[in-house]
Amino acid sequence: MRLLVLGGTHFLGRHVVTAALERGHEVATFTRGVSGAPPAGARALIGDRDDPVALPAALDGWSPELVVDTSCQTRAAAEHAATALADVAGYAFVSSLNAYRNWPPGPIAGEQEPTWDSDEDSYGPVKAAAERVLVAALGERFLTARAGLVVGPHDPLYRLGWWLDRIAAGGRVVVPAEGLDQPIALVDARDLAGWLVESVEQGRSGAVNATGPAGMTTFGGLLDTCRDVTGGDAEWMPVPEAELLAAGVQEWSHLPLWLAARTARTAWDVDTTRARELGLPSRPVRDSIADSWTWMQTSERPEPPAGRPLPGLPLDLERTLLTGG
Predict the structure, then answer these.
(1) How far apart (Å, rounded) are the C-alpha atoms in residues 183 and 225?
(2) From residue 325, how far is each of 242, 243, 317 by CA, in Å?
(3) Does pTM surpass 0.90?
(4) Is the pLDDT of residue 4 over 90?
């Protein structure tokens, strides 16, 4: 079938293209053309989703039957896609757990939890608004995958990547003393991508919490696996949470994937029963980490977006924490 990937050259979208090609689809991608070319075998359509005429012009008579949308970042992008693609047989949209009004901190007991309904232009409200716009146009032909933490090869966000590099460098590594046993969950981009293609083929609809099962690993377990995979001699230097916060360590950004206890207690508690019933795979965490590390050996580290530093503990802050000064 003719399958259009909105996105398709960066991370999750790239894996969606690969999965769709492997399943025999005729694949096209629609991107701004700034993140490189899609995988070989897909046609590249270029345009800005915020321009109302860009997508119809790029399609130029090529009529997709299925859509996987991995790139919607604005309300306008959703509205233009809903107009141009209202007649497709199936549309899978990659949303986020941030679409839920109460997450974080959660917990999320199921897909019926309330989503944002405000006019804010922040990430969660925009994803929730996009869901409403697209389901209004597509009805039962629309699936929204509310993704959690996505990892795997081609990940440009450098959260797991920073830990792999830092642990591979060895020596004493600052870790949160109370956070090592915090349960976390993640989904490999390749698992999510293949499932999205299968879902749109089969006409699945509705909302799905698209992440790994709650408690599939712990933060400490993930770090231990990073050490095993990289072969480093890193030694954990546990620092109490109160000291981390007092020193200015920022959750999620300075120590990627770490959340303070008040948030972590519930943020990782997301019901994924429907995802499991619909066959979303969950490959071993070690495989995701090992494959990410293998990819990093031949890949440049990402450039930070304008005005936004890459994740990771600044060297001066790490030095202060390690020396107690």
Answers:
(1) 15
(2) 15, 11, 10
(3) yes
(4) yes
